[in-house]
Amino acid sequence: MSIAPYENDGYNAYKNQRITFSVTSLSHAALAFVVFLGGFVFIEPAPYELFIIPLLIIWFACGLSFQKGFLPLTFLLLTFICGGLLSATQRADIGGGIFYIIVTAFLATTAIFFAALVAERPFERSRIIFKAYIFSALIGSFIAILTYFHLLPNSESFLFGGRAKGQFQDPNVFGPFLVLPALYLF
């Protein structure tokens, strides 16, 4: 009778553990992060815009599927962009109009991207989007309240005309950003 060494001691058990990430969990984390960044538009290009470009490319390359239901949305957005390009030719400063249409086309692409993401797994991804959006709105609201009452250093950089603008460039954008999370939490 021989005695074999115990192979499952604490050291070997610890050594054999591996940290694994599934593609699904990484993609959901990236989705949550990009939605969270949508609440921070104090510079241009915004962090959201810089992060969503590689995310769009990777997700489209990995086979994000489109459904027939996206055709009306896509058609209307393309019609709007074509109309904008046509109207940009009537401006004295054509470059400014073209830049506006490029930004509009980028935002239209992200709209179709989010529609495709949610269509694949509606409940799961909608929950991720709302949680990230609410978290971003709560942080923004907290920053806005603290800076409105001058409780943080350099509070004036978060105010515009005495109004709280949070992490946006304009209070008129910050207010509408907070409407959907407020209604959802209500």
Would you mind describing this structure in some detail?
It is a single chain. By secondary structure, this protein is mainly alpha-helical. It folds into 2 domains: 77 residues, no CATH class; 65 residues. Helix content is 66%, strand content 2%. A two-stranded antiparallel sheet has the order 1-2. A hairpin with a 2-residue loop joins strand 1 and strand 2. It is globular, with a radius of gyration of 23 Å. It starts with 9 loop residues before the first helix and ends with a helix. The mean pLDDT is 86.
For the record, give the distance between the C-alpha atoms at the N and C termini, rounded to a whole number.
71 Å
Number of strands: 2
Largest sheet geometry: 2 strands, antiparallel
Helix content: 55-70%
> Structural class per helix/strand content?
mainly alpha
Please list the strands of the largest sheet in the order they lie side by side.
Answer: 1-2
Q: What is the radius of gyration computed over CA atoms, rounded to a whole number of angstroms?
A: 23 Å
Task: Give me the strand/helix succession.
Answer: HHHHHHEEH
Choose one word for the global shape.
globular
Average of pLDDT = 86
Low-confidence sequence ranges: none
Number of helices: 7
Task: Fill in the keyword field for this structure.
globular, 186 residues, two-stranded antiparallel sheet, mainly alpha, 2 domains, single chain, 2 strands, 7 helices
